[in-house]
Amino acid sequence: MYAPAEHDEITGLLRYLVQQLDALRASAFGLTEAQSRETPCRSSLSIAGLIKHAAHGMRGAAARLRGTPSMDFDAYLASFAPAPDETTTALIAEFDAARAEYLEAFAAADPDAVTIEPPAPWHGRFTEQPVRWRYYLVHQIEEMARHAGHADIIREQLDGMSIPALVLTVEGAPANDFFQPYVPEPGTIGAP
Questions:
Q1: Which InterPro entries did the record assign (predicted)?
Q2: Is the pTM of this model over 0.90?
Q3: Is the N or the C terminus of the chain less surrounded, counting Cβ atoms within 10 Å?
């Protein structure tokens, strides 16, 4: 959890983003490969799919933050579900690699600098417009928080575990009156 602190703006934004990414990554901890692909809610989202989609989004956002944006709509559409030959463990490795690149680009951004926001016809915006990078940075936190929230709901449907407890477990937090570490079954994702 991002504890209260006196940070500058970019550090505060970055810490909130890291919190969302930690939650999303922890959502797979202790699942079987089959569980990570299940879609127990009315949507077609799975834990593995959310991790894959977030990695895709992080790579795209890092490219945009570095000034080299690209949009591959087919890759975007394919990012919502794992392919039959993709494992969740491999998707987590891709997530981790994308995360490092993404956080480096995010941390280097100047929230007050001006950038151009491209059209978003699905939101009724048909022309590009100037915005401060702050708009885009906060939007990144919004997107990752949405994905972490979806993962939390899916995980609770799968086995009743909540993401905060999984994050604390992954971080090595000791048991206390409010929390007992989760013990994953041997052979599951991330299990020792």
A1: DinB/YfiT-like (IPR034660), MST-like (IPR007061)
A2: yes
A3: C
